[in-house]
Amino acid sequence: MQQIRGIGASPGLAAAKAYRMRTGERATPGRTTVEDAEQEVERLRKAVSQAGTELERIRTATEEKLGTHKAEIFEGHLMILDDPEWMDVIVGKINDEAVNAEYAVHEVSQTFIDMLMGMDDELLRERAVDIRDVSGRVMSHLQGRPHRDLSSLTEPCILIAEDLTPSDTAQLNLDVILGFVTEIGSRTSHSAIMARSLDIPAIVGVGQGIHGIEDGAVVVMDAVEGTVLVGPGEEELVAFRDKKRSYDIRKAELAALKDRPTQSADGVRVELAANIGKLEDVQKALDNGAEAIGLFRTEFLYMGRDSLPTEEEQFNSYKYVLEKMDGKPVVIRTLDIGGDKELPYLSLPKESNPFLGQRALRLCLSREDLFRTQLRALLRASRFGNLKIMFPMIAVVDELREAKRILEEEKRRLAEAGTPPDDRIEVGMMIEVPAAAVAADTFAGEVDFFSIGTNDLIQYTMAADRMNETVAYLYQPCHPAVLRLIRMVIQAAKQQGKWVGMCGEMAGDQTAIPLLLGMGLHEFSMSAGSILPARELIGRLSKAEWSMSAEEALTMRGQDEIQAFIQMKIRNGAYA
Ligand code: PEP
Ligand code: MG
Description:
The chain has helices at residues 37-66, 68-82, 84-97, 101-117, 122-142, 166-170, 190-198, 234-254, 280-287, 311-325, 360-366, 368-381, 397-416, 434-438, 440-444, 454-462, 480-495, 513-519, 528-539, 543-553, 559-571; strands at residues 2-5, 7-10, 13-20, 157-161, 177-182, 202-204, 218-222, 227-230, 271-276, 292-297, 329-333, 386-391, 426-431, 449-452, 499-502, 523-526.
């Protein structure tokens, strides 16, 4: 038995066989000379035929599960396999240069990819992505490593991967995947966030420990503690079952708070909202007693597909969420692509520091077509509920003004077309860039609300990449610098009569909540699973008492001291 430690990124317990996701299929193959080119071509044809059979099966399964539209991508892949232009050039290269098939496939595909990537036409650039996928699939057959795709899994398992992209995570089949463990990542990487909204146990950042987990080994994951047991004995399995039982009982107890308002022990009402990324998350939010949606990360509507969602598709999604929330507030954030959230079909240029690059609103202001489509869909949907629109990643007032100007223009156009949007839509901004936090007073007059995005605010304040587990210790929500910034933002908003919420992970952090309540935060938006524990905690806290304690905490030296102070107060029951 072996124990591996990582970061518990989404709580829960699970035990099952490990399923190791393969990586490295795309490693560049070396060039070798072959003696019998004909035999090498034969090997290539066999791999192509295997890839074809596999794609055919995936196409049929996708069509049955997700419809014809989603299956079209595999239709396109099959066409590439059948395309004589691609195949003939590879065969020619093997024959002419007597090189191994892997090398020929890689070289020829790369030439096509480079050529297509240089084209103006978006459709052709998308074709490059398809060629990369297809050549990777053929390559894995050549190397005798069948390309196993997650949708074909039928047995319950725990997924073990180097990393999962947010779109991988969005597409997990939760009927069979009971949890996942990744080598890299941190609590605030987007796959971790997705895992929490899917309510699936996840442990990230286990580092080299990942290599100790073999495919098919039995693993027990405790994502509350962040531990993975590989090959547990009977004793460990019994302990696991006991712990899981207690965990499930605690969940059931908390469920009794589902329809209660959130109120501190001294009667101060605050709002507990949910962060969502997919339409299915709305039901989870309601089941967990969310009083609002505090953050809809709309970029997930753009992921796991091969083209941009149309205005109509987006309108239907926003309308669905607004209707389902039945008049409760719904904060919808405009597209936040960039950083660890990529959209391959947009073929955006590679950036060396994507978290500091043309991300989120910066991208939207440079791609107005995307932005306007989204805004129109939002404005049209506004008539179906209580919509609030929020802009991400603002650093300077001009960005906010420009976004608002475009929004107003789209509003006017809709009104002129005889379909005016709701006239009570609030417009807010995220505070996630330190510049905006420090100068929050200069923004407050131009918005209806702020929502503090601590995931980014902390990474930028501490200069610590939120994706990098080796600097995960610098994710310090209770660092005095972070707390001071938060206090400044809350005060700036309050002084100008605006409400302020928080939608970063810190809002659901049990240790931070007392201070946030004390500092006067109004809305706490978090993963659905954190809502009921937060409601229970707030019900035991006195806002007045914690206002004073927050002041005291802000004079302390560092996160350790501050957290110890909070925990000591809670333990001593001196909080109510
Ligand atoms: C944040 O940065 O805190 C936030 C809520 O946005 P995201 O996690 O999507 O970057
Ligand atoms: Mg952010």
